[in-house]
Specification:
This protein is an alpha/beta fold. It folds into two domains: about 120 residues, Rossmann fold; about 120 residues, Rossmann fold. Helices cover about 35% and strands about 15% of the residues. The chain contains nine helices and eleven strands. The strands form three sheets. The protein has a five-stranded parallel beta sheet.
């Protein structure tokens, strides 16, 4: 006898960039969820800057390369390959499991990353990032973002360079499907991966949609994502573990209490 679907009847908005959102929606739908894919973040290529070219042309001088997301892995390695092979002695680190898996899939069997919470603070707490005085470290990321990694590593004596190889943008999308589902009471939760995505989502659905968030749950990978004013619009926040299974488990708790 088949086990009951864990998310039967649960309405979920998935806000990740399109390709990732579609893959996640499939996993949630297998568990019985009704999913609306509404990307609130998009990734765009950028023209290489002189700073990026200089950094990637001299990768051999770095001791550690940190990747802040799976997008940073994809775009960063693509950009680095245009400047020659990856130096064998250059170790790689990731902000969390999804980014580490992207690196493993790209041919790096040994990845430094935190196994519990997936954030800069947990990465900085790892032994490998403690004694970095005098080391050159390169951080692959998109334009802008948090400065925590750079500031802390420099405070420990490292020399840190950014390799900014893409940009995050707010996509243009018709919010009507989300607004209509909210009005019918068919949405129970919204899943976001970052504070930027959350801010984009609230802006994209407008004041009318934002008024309907007070009855919903917000699923996030880390409490800090929901710490701002947009997070406080929701009835409750649940922290999801890694990957689709972690989100399914978090959403199944919402379903039990609704």
């Amino acid at each position: 006898m088949n086990a009951p679907a864990r998310l039967e009847g649960l309405g979920v908005v998935v806000t990740r960039p399109r390709a990732a959102a579609d893959a996640l929606a499939t996993a949630l739908e297998r568990e019985g969820a009704r999913v609306i894919v509404f990307p609130a973040l998009a990734i765009e290529d950028i023209a290489p800057t002189p700073a990026l070219v200089e950094a990637l042309s001299g990768l051999s001088r770095f001791r550690l390369a940190i990747f802040v997301s799976a997008h940073a892995v994809e775009k960063g390695l693509e950009a680095a390959a245009r400047h020659g092979p990856w130096p064998a002695e250059l170790a790689v680190a990731a902000i969390g499991e999804a980014t580490a898996q992207a690196l493993r899939n790209s041919g790096f069997p040994s990845v430094i990353y935190p196994h519990e919470r997936h954030d800069s603070e947990q990465l900085l707490a790892l032994p490998r990032l403690q004694a970095v005085e005098g080391q050159n470290i390169i951080v692959f990321r998109g334009e802008g973002g948090r400065e925590r990694l750079k500031e802390e590593l420099e405070a420990r004596g490292a020399r840190v360079v950014y390799a900014e190889c893409y940009r995050r943008v707010r996509p243009s999308a018709d919010p009507a499907p989300v607004l209509e589902a909210l009005a019918r009471g068919e949405i129970h939760a919204v899943s976001v991966l970052s504070a930027e995505t959350l801010e984009n989502f609230v802006a994209m659905i407008g004041p009318e949609g934002a008024r309907g968030l007070g009855a919903l749950a917000l699923a996030v990978p880390h409490p800090a994502v929901a710490a701002g004013a947009s997070g406080r619009r929701f009835a409750r926040v649940v922290v999801a573990g890694h990957g689709a299974e972690g989100l399914v488990q978090a959403l199944s708790r919402i379903r039990v209490t609704t």
